[in-house]
Amino acid sequence: MQTASSILVIDDEPVLQDVLSTLLGNEGFEVYSAMTAAQGLTVLAEEDIDVVLLDLMLPDRNGLDLLPEITNLAPDLPVIVITAHSSVESAIQAMREGAYHYVPKPFKNEVVLHLVRRAAERRQLERENRLLRSRLDGVGEIVGTSRRIEEVFELIRRAAPARSNILVTGESGTGKELAARAIHRLSPRREGPFVPVHTSAIPTDLLESTLFGHVKGAFTGAVASRKGLFEAASEGTLFLDEVGTITPETQTKLLRVIQEREIRRVGGVESFPVDVRIVTATNIDLLEAVHQGRFREDLYYRLNVISIEMPPLRERPEDIPTLATHFLHIYAEENQRQVSEFTPEVMDLLTDYAWPGNVRELENAVERAVVLSQGNQIGPETLPRAVRSDPDRPRISDSLPPGGLDFRKAVADFQAHLIRRALERSDGVQRKAARLLKLSPTTFNEMVHRLGLSDRRRS
Predict the structure, then answer these.
(1) What is the pLDDT of residues 178-211, one digit of tens each?
(2) pLDDT of residue 237
(3) In the chain, what percentage of residues exceed pLDDT 90?
(4) What is the rounded distance in angstroms from the CA atom of residue 430 to the CA atom of residue 435?
(5) C-alpha to C-alpha distance for 404 and 410, rounded to whole angstroms
(6) What is the per-residue pLDDT for 230?
(7) Which of 390-422 are b and which e, b meaning 16 or more Cβ less than 10 Å from the residue's Cβ?
(8) CATH no., domain 6-134
(9) Which is it for strands 341-342 and 377-378: parallel, antiparallel or unpaired?
(10) Cα-flanking dihedrals φ and ψ of residue 262, to 5°?
(11) Positions of the chain with pLDDT lower than 50, given as ranges
(12) What pLDDT shows up at residue 457?
């Protein structure tokens, strides 16, 4: 399990050092102390610090002069300035130069704890995002750290270098095209084109021409010969989305292209070799379509050499906070809004909702909330009604997919969800989290280990 967030207090008042060390230590933080600016820089160079509490009046340096050095040493490190009432203007100046927030003396304990928790959470999220980006190695826009999504990442990394065709399955909104793009980016064909084709959006009588091209005069309106998307994707990747909607006639021609690795334009007699990797996606059960005679069995096995299933969001609720924050940052910047966080009530609503529209629905909800928010926090009034107030809204706890589920796995997932929620509510302190769930600390700790959870802080 990960260690507690570490706090560095740079202040030359021994009484204040004692007060903050006791206050923060009791909340599960690991506290380091420095009485001077020089000592503070030494600690920062030697220890992995999550948050700095910095007094502006130090014996060897002015805190305003020290702040840029801290920022250069650790650009993402949140610094909370401690200041007397008479120097609030200096604190505001410090915030303009990159400080996270300020605390005027004398301060209230709950104010300090609130700011430190928020700063530590932001620091942890930034670390997770950096770690995630480093682990993904090009997987790109797919966001998450849950076991289910890690399995997807591993499959993508292992399958991408090969030439084999890949079938990506999953409900609408789970990110099937993102998976296909990640496969392309990690493949030897990354310098070639990635050509997406949303087959269900193309009229049936135009799909063959779109895919294979046509010769002049092949049909009314074909005033000139035209290349198809197979040729456009040469030496790259062709992504066929909703492949289950393709008609039997086009399925036959697609099978021939895969087998012969050559195409024949509509109305033509000459064949052209093509060097294309095919990635397909569907939100229906293609094997069931085969059994019903709606999809060719031989084509199914040609396309489904490697299968990657994108899990629905309700099966990886632990990724919801990370995804929501990811979208929050994107749309706050895009819409030039100052909103920077969700209220605890909103995060509870987001993590409890089952998201039938999956990641796409969550993204739309967060974008809406950012646009409608007026302060720096997203409140429940900005969420869609289905998420915030509908008593019949689907919830993580009571969703049951049409095809059923693995009962033991569902129970384990829900236990893990409750434990994570309890840890979040108790700022990672296991004793408090155990009390919230009316469990003994020993039982709680055993469940954390048994379920393979990664607690962010010490007990």
Answers:
(1) 999 999 999 999 999 999 999 988 888 789 889 9
(2) 96
(3) 44
(4) 9
(5) 11
(6) 93
(7) eeebbebeebeeeeeeeeeebeebeebbebbbb
(8) 3.40.50.2300
(9) parallel
(10) -150, 155
(11) 1-2, 134-138, 455-459
(12) 42
Q: 383 by DSSP, 3-state: which?
A: coil
Give the per-residue pLDDT at 456.
43
Element (H, E) at 280: strand 277-282
Give the domain ranges of the chain: 6-134, 147-311, 314-450
Determine the length of the chain: 459
240 strand-pairing partners: 197, 280
DSSP class of 165: -
Q: Where are the beta strands (DSSP E) in 363-458?
A: 377-378
Residue 169's DSSP bridge partners are: 282, 309
| Full-model pTM | 0.59
- Helices and strands, counts by H and E, the chain: 19, 14
Residue 338 pLDDT: 86
Helix/strand/coil (H/E/C) assignment for every residue in 313-357: HHHCHHHHHHHHHHHHHHHHHHCCCCCCEECHHHHHHHHHECCCC
Q: Is it true that domain 314-450 has CATH number 1.10.8.60?
A: yes
Amino acid identity for residue 236 in this structure: G
State the pLDDT at residue 420: 79
**Rounded distance between C-alpha atoms, residue 390 and residue 353, angstroms:** 11
- Give the Cα separation of 45 and 241 in Å (integer): 50
> Which tokens sit at 258?
């895969």
Tokens 């030496």 sit at which residue? Answer: 235
User: Homologous superfamily of 147-311 in CATH?
Assistant: P-loop containing nucleotide triphosphate hydrolases (3.40.50.300)
Number of other CB atoms surrounding residue 63 within 10 Å: 25
Equal CATH topology for 6-134 and 314-450: no
